[in-house]
Amino acid sequence: MADYEAIIGMEVHAQIVTASKMFCGCSADYAGAPPNTHVCPVCLGMPGVLPVINRQAVEQTIRTGLALHCQIAHESVFARKNYHYPDLPKGYQISQYELPLCRDGWVEIELADGQRRRVRIRRAHLEEDTGKLTHVDGYSLVDLNRAGVPLLEIVSEPDMRTPEEAYAYVTRLRQILRYLGVCTGDMEKGAMRCEVNVSVRPVGSPELGTKVEIKNLNSFRSVRLALEYEIQRQIRLLERGEAVEQVTVGWDEDRGRTVLQRTKESAEDYRYFPEPDLPPLVISPEWVEELRTTLPELPLARRDRFMETYNLSRQEANLLTEERAVADFFEDAVKAYAGEPRTIANWITGELFRLLNAEGIEITDAQVTPAGLAELQTLVDQGTINLNTAKRVLDTMFHTGRSAKEIVEAEGLAQVSDQEALAAIVAQVIKEHPEEVEKYRSGTTKVFGWLMGQVMRATRGKANPQLARELLQKMLDES
Ligand SMILES: [Zn+2]
Fold first, then answer.
1. Lower CB count within 10 Å: N or C terminus of the chain?
2. 23 C-alpha vs ligand 1 centroid, how far in Å?
3. What is the pTM of this model?
4. How is domain 419-478 classified at the CATH fold level?
5. Is the dihedral of CA 268, 271, 272, 277 positive or negative?
6. Where are the domains of the chain?
7. What is the mean pLDDT of the chain?
């Protein structure tokens, strides 16, 4: 059996977060709104109306292009893509064809083993979204709230070779879009959609195989699964000496297989031509430079810097930079804290993530502030509270928004570090448990932990553990 390699390319559509739609003043925030309430004559495609370009959408596209190392066009032209479908009231979609806003860029991806690779970006352009159809038995309903929402299309070169690389690419792209605030990246809600094309050829062959397009990919997981399935299907065909047909297939998540949607013969001719109702878009170099200054530090660069500056492992730094808000929280907390940054990292990736997951909220919605977390750890460092108490205090901070100091004072949680007071408690524990003490003294040293537990219990968990351990050891060894 010959070895085969897959050639994979991807088209991603991302809804751009803007106040209004691409060519009219309708609110683009239609989530949850009753059908056909975010519409006007422009996005309904009434005769005689004229589109107006949304500046914010153009700026977000240019920012994305810059983050993807693209060349930004000085002049870009909108084009009509003609086709008839019930979710497209005008009978055409305004898109970009020959002169897209951004072209020739790249994204750096990182694989599980840490290996890095560049995936080239062929183009990124701006267009408008279509409406949404709901099929009920016998008839279809159309909701045009989504029609005209700005959509960014990002087309890669066929630079990926494995499903893992495709997965790494699309998740990295999503992360960058979220860092930029361009798109929510929510694939399940359709805010980000992707289509993959894949062909297979014997390793070493200079010719490309026939490519198949896969649609209906509703999650990042399905991108990987659909590619794994489709690559195997194509290899089996070639092994049998059969030809791969140029078709469009859909991914059937439930059955775990691709299904034929369209053959090449029925592929449409969109008769693109320059949009006569819009002037060419002129982009000055000054405007581009101004937008460049609004770019945040990008995820992979930030991840690398976190490893270097804060002495974190790759995994820790990945966790902290996955979302920009978490990375910001971490750095703000580190600024407010005098000790080791890793201590702060542990709090965030451990207890704080656990609390956020349990409540199902984002770090930006949490009542704990970076300075508040720094104060909490400072109380631990100063010996005011022990680590176990600190976890309980964080829980209260998280649910009430009160500060660590306030909680410790109000609830009397300061640990018992007073040597005399603690010595009295330890002496009491020894007195109350003569059997266990005897066991310890006759060599059963594991009973020490149990006695420590009694000391902690007697102080309601507030004993300074190190001091308590020393005292207990000393008193047990003494008599
Ligand atoms: Zn409208």
1. N
2. 7
3. 0.86
4. Arc Repressor Mutant, subunit A (1.10.10)
5. negative
6. 4-291, 299-410, 419-478
7. 93
